[in-house]
Design a protein that fits this description.
alpha+beta, Nucleotidyltransferase, domain 5, seven-stranded mixed beta sheet, three-stranded mixed beta sheet, nucleotide-binding, FGGY_C, Carb_kinase_FGGY, EC 2.7.1.30, Carb_kinase_FGGY_CS
Length: 479
């Protein structure tokens, strides 16, 4: 996406890439395909905007944070498929950690012990793919992989990441904002194989003139996708929050310069760091499966042909007829953190139709979000009256109305729904003075739509009690 000074979109292009699932619980991406398609969308977006790479002031990168790549710096090729954040193959590795190691990891990183994060993915690669143990091997998240390629790759690419992505690896100390030797030793990872950790808003390097931009442009911003959405939603101050609806669902609450350690199943993470300013931290609640539940209806069940059909199908019935769908395909994330949970559809009768299932899938997105936001209120002590939302599912008006009704709060959507891309642009623009200050950026935020709750307290709580019963089924399915 290409933005002008007023944050208007002047060019964009997007393409899907493959989801590779070689075994149950395994999810992979082809990192070479991601790089190829990145080049494709760059060229197409420039063409649509009718500009050249030399017309750009700066470039920001944002990415799915925990997805892990290993590549060879001499060949420029991935050593193995990227292991995606949803992948659960490392559950057994984490189960071998002793209580002291687990406590150390939790305290130093602010994260829970889960296969979601990058550190155990790197250890799995080291244990199972001999080439990753070579001195030529490098590890990184997708931002590092793209930065290295954009800045020249084998011709001298920059190997770096930012604090938000590094904070999702189980390897970075939240207080020092650097790789931690004790954590590296626990997972057996060499510091030399990892990228340098930088702030979220600074010049990382210049693009290779031989690459898709055709010139040297400063890459000046890198943020993990959820933190980028916080910046895109201008949640710069303590107490401000947003929820992004994508493949998964992610809510963040800005806690300022304070590291707040959750007592209710949330994660503590870096929110952003601009240049030499102090890092800002956040509480985060992560839901593994939201938008990907709609993909499942489309790709695995054939209930719909296109994701856009979900709203009309779900609107054709007044309710779910008592059907509840818990899409725990990769276990359950916050606030449960149960990797052994499995998906369930409960309350089925002979009268249930695909429309009821589609509506239950939308409700599942909203109930999972409520689980997270209730935990966030409990940790922060700040009652919630409004929630800012962004991401693809916010185009589904029925789902957003359900969200307002299930939570009993106002839901506010910005004019630019793809705030993840906008946040990366803001970080890059602030680094080079394209925007003069955070206040200038804040003034650009505009609302496009608002949903108010229509439900009664009794309706909300009755539905939520039934949801919790359905969740219990997924947690106790083995018994």
């Amino acid at each position: 996406m290409i933005f002008d000074h007023e944050a208007n979109v002047v060019g964009q292009h997007q393409v899907e890439h493959r989801q590779i699932m070689p075994e149950a619980g395994w999810v992979e991406h082809d990192a070479s395909e991601i790089w190829e398609r990145t080049q494709e969308v760059i060229v197409a977006a420039l063409k649509q905007a009718d500009i050249l790479g030399s017309d750009l002031a700066a470039i920001g990168i944002t990415n799915q944070r925990e997805t892990t790549v290993a590549w060879d710096v001499t060949t420029g090729l991935p050593i193995y498929n990227a292991i995606v954040w949803q992948d659960t193959r490392t559950t057994e590795i984490l189960a071998t950690l002793c209580e002291q190691e687990q406590a150390t990891i939790r305290f130093k990183t602010g994260l829970t012990i889960a296969p979601y994060f990058s550190g155990s993915k790197m250890k799995w690669l080291l244990d199972n793919v001999p080439e990753t143990r070579s001195s030529n091997a490098r590890f990184g998240t997708i931002d590092s992989w793209l930065l290295w390629n954009l800045t020249g790759g084998v011709r001298g690419g920059v190997h770096a990441t930012d604090v938000t992505n590094a904070s999702r690896t189980l390897l970075m100390n939240l207080e020092t904002l650097d790789w931690d030797d004790e954590l590296l030793n626990i997972f057996g990872i060499a510091r030399s194989s990892l990228p340098a950790i930088k702030s979220s808003s600074q010049i990382f390097g210049l693009t290779d003139p031989h690459g898709p931009f055709g010139t040297s442009v400063p890459i000046a911003g890198i943020l993990g996708d959820q933190q980028a959405a916080m910046v895109g939603q201008v949640c710069f101050e303590r107490g401000e929050s947003k929820t992004t609806y994508g493949t998964g669902n992610f809510a963040l609450l800005n806690t300022g310069t304070e590291i707040v350690r959750s007592k209710n199943g949330l994660l503590t993470t870096v929110c952003f760091k601009f240049g030499d300013e102090a890092a800002r931290y956040a509480l985060e609640g992560s839901v593994a499966v939201t938008g990907s539940a709609i993909q499942w209806l489309r790709d695995q069940l054939g209930v719909i042909s296109h994701a856009s059909e979900t709203e009309n199908l779900a609107s054709s019935v007044a309710d779910t007829a008592g059907v509840y769908f818990v899409p725990a395909f990769s276990g359950l994330f916050a606030p449960y953190w149960r990797g052994d949970a499995r998906g369930a559809i409960v309350g089925l009768t002979r009268a249930a139709t695909k429309a009821h299932l589609a509506r239950a899938a939308l409700e599942a997105i909203c109930y999972q979000t409520r689980d997270v936001m209730d935990a966030m209120v409990a940790d922060s002590g700040v009652p919630m009256s409004e929630m800012r939302v962004d991401g693809g599912i916010t185009a589904n008006s029925l789902c957003m109305q359900m969200q307002a009704d299930i939570m009993g709060v106002e839901i506010s959507k910005p004019l630019i729904a793809e705030t993840t891309a906008l946040g990366a642009a803001y970080a890059a623009g602030l680094a080079i003075g394209f925007w003069s200050s955070q206040d200038e950026v804040r003034r650009q935020w505009r609302q496009s739509r608002r949903w108010s709750p229509h439900s009664s307290l009794e309706q909300r709580e009755s539905g939520y009690r039934q949801w919790k019963k359905a969740v219990d089924r997924t947690l106790n399915w083995i018994d």
